[in-house]
């Protein structure tokens, strides 16, 4: 049986424990979600790095050139998340067909800060920005991420067939690096694996269009 410490030693140990300073409080640096400013081009390499890491980890997120990201920052149509001077999140809005549509893309949050509602805050900021800059635009989303789909639905996006989306070829070029691009091409851009959603301007109701293939027959994705 191990020897018990004598009373005096036990008392000293207890009083030392009482006197020990409390462990330092871990104060989390504040997190700010805001519109990007032109000076945020300083963080371009970091943004491209976050997107590349997510892509390499298996997320279906289009790789964007620093030039593409820089344009969105300079044109004040991007949102950033900052923590203690470090960029930890990014997303951008892009108008198509002279503002008939706006897409939100390149949404990424640093892995250590996921699941804290940051993409929701960015999404709400992007919707507000889109409404101010392109009030008549339908906001569109094309995503393979179940998180982003759930997020969009909770923000009021409605699932739509691909024929309701923009026809602008530049928009569809964004799909060229995707592993499913051959599938999209085979379906003449009328259907693919992504979830497609629209958030219409307040008061506008969607006119249902029946998607048709090259032969004029109703195609997959009709709703
Ligand atoms: C997708 C991504 C941006 C989400 O960012 P996030 O800050 O972790 O997301 P949030 O914490 O704001 O969650 C927003 C919503 O997403 C959904 N969501 C988030 N994490 C989820 C998970 N692990 N499983 C299911 N749904 C989830 C929920 O609907 C959540 O809504 P809630 O507030 O009701 O819980 C982030 O995971 C990421 O950067 N992924 C890699 C890049 C990527 O895939 N980008 C999307 C390209 S379209």
Task: Considering the chains and any ligands shown, give keywords for the structure.
binds coenzyme A; Aminopeptidase; 20% strand; 7 helices; alpha+beta; 7-stranded mixed beta sheet; 32% helix; single chain; 223 residues; elongated
Strand and helix map with partners:
Elements (H helix, E strand, L loop, with lengths): L6 H13 L11 E5 L8 H13 L9 H9 L3 E6 L2 E11 L4 E9 L8 H16 L4 E6 L2 H9 L3 E2 L9 H5 L7 H6 L8 E5 L24
Parallel strand pairs: 4-5
Antiparallel strand pairs: 1-2, 2-3, 3-4, 5-7, 6-7
Would you kindly provide a written description of the structure presented here, covering whatever features stand out?
This protein has 223 residues and is α+β, with helices and mostly antiparallel strands. It has a single domain, classed as Gcn5-related N-acetyltransferase (GNAT) (Aminopeptidase), CATH 3.40.630. Helix content is 32%, strand content 20%. It contains 7 helices and 7 strands, in the order αβααβββαβαβααβ. A 7-stranded mixed sheet has the order 1-2-3-4-5-7-6, sandwiched between helices. The longest helix has 16 residues. The radius of gyration is 25 Å and the shape is elongated. The mean pLDDT is 89. The protein binds coenzyme A (COA). The site of coenzyme A has 21 residues, from β4, α4 and α5. The site of coenzyme A (COA) has 21 residues, from β4, α4 and α5.
Count of the domains: 1
How many DSSP-defined strands? Answer: 7
- The name CATH uses for the topology is Aminopeptidase
Instruction: Enumerate the spans where pLDDT stays under 50 for 5 or more consecutive residues.
Output: none
SSE order, one letter for each helix or strand: HEHHEEEHEHEHHE
Which small molecules are bound?
coenzyme A
């Amino acid at each position: 049986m191990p020897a018990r410490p004598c009373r005096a030693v036990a008392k000293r140990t207890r009083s030392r424990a009482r006197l020990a300073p409390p462990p330092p409080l871990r104060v989390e640096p504040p997190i700010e979600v805001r519109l990007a400013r032109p000076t945020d081009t300083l963080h371009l390499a970091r943004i491209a790095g976050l997107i590349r890491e997510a892509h390499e980890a298996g997320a279906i997120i289009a790789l964007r050139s620093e030039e593409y990201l820089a344009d969105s920052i300079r044109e004040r149509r991007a949102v950033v998340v900052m923590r203690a001077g470090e960029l930890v999140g990014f997303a951008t809005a892009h108008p198509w067909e002279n503002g008939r549509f706006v897409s939100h893309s390149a949404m990424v949050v640093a892995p250590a800060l996921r699941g804290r509602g940051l993409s929701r805050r960015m999404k709400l900021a992007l919707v507000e920005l889109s409404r101010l800059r392109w009030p008549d635009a339908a906001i569109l989303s094309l995503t393979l991420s179940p998180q982003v789909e759930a997020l969009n639905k909770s923000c009021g996006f409605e699932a739509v067939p691909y024929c309701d989306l923009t026809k602008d070829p530049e928009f569809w070029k964004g799909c060229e690096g995707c592993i499913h691009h051959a599938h999209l091409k085979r379906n003449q851009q009328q259907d693919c694996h992504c979830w497609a959603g629209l958030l219409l301007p307040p008061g506008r109701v969607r006119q249902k269009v029946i998607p048709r293939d090259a032969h004029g027959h109703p195609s997959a994705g009709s709703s």
